[in-house]
Specification:
Elements (H helix, E strand, L loop, with lengths): L4 H48 L6 H15 L2 H22 L1 H45 L10
Helix pairs in contact: 1-2, 1-3, 1-4
Length: about 150
């Protein structure tokens, strides 16, 4: 059986790219929803506090504040705005945190097409090896706890 390391490098690149994109999107969306919920809660608290206390007594102002508070708190547009904003921001932030392994996986997968037929196979194989080392480091640190600092003393 003859093992073609170029195909192994491409397989490593493809599998890692799929895993990284899946993880980045899931983590980004999850963090985005959490941030949106916190921001919605903070904004709604601010609206209620600002509309509860007044410096001037006026029946008209009280009715206007009540209308404004109800329209803000019961509006789905406010929730949608904060959710979309935070999900997009968190998604890009999650992808940015994983840019090195994503770049390595793309280089392992597409190294021959990007760098040309002479240097491309070397780029692909070296990227696959570096990606494997990076993955081993992350698994060793995060799963096995090797070299991980704990805050428990």
């Amino acid at each position: 059986m003859n093992l073609n390391y170029g195909h192994v490098a491409k397989a490593v690149g493809a599998v890692s790219a799929m895993a990284l994109v899946y993880d980045a999107t899931r983590t980004g969306v999850h963090d985005g929803y959490n941030r949106a919920n916190m921001e919605i809660g903070d904004y709604c608290t601010k609206v209620v506090v600002n509309n509860t206390y007044t410096n001037r007594e006026s029946h008209l102002l009280e009715r206007m504040k009540g209308w404004y508070q109800n329209s803000i708190l019961q509006s789905g547009a406010l929730t949608d705005f904060f959710t979309v904003k935070n999900v997009i921001f968190s998604l890009f932030s999650s992808i940015a945190r994983n840019i090195v392994p994503i770049g390595l996986s793309l280089a392992a997968l597409c190294g021959e097409k990007i760098a040309g037929p002479n240097v491309g196979p070397i780029v692909s194989k070296v990227s696959a090896v570096l990606l494997g080392l990076f993955g081993a480091k992350v698994l060793g640190t995060e799963v096995l706890g090797i070299g991980k600092r704990t805050n428990i003393d």
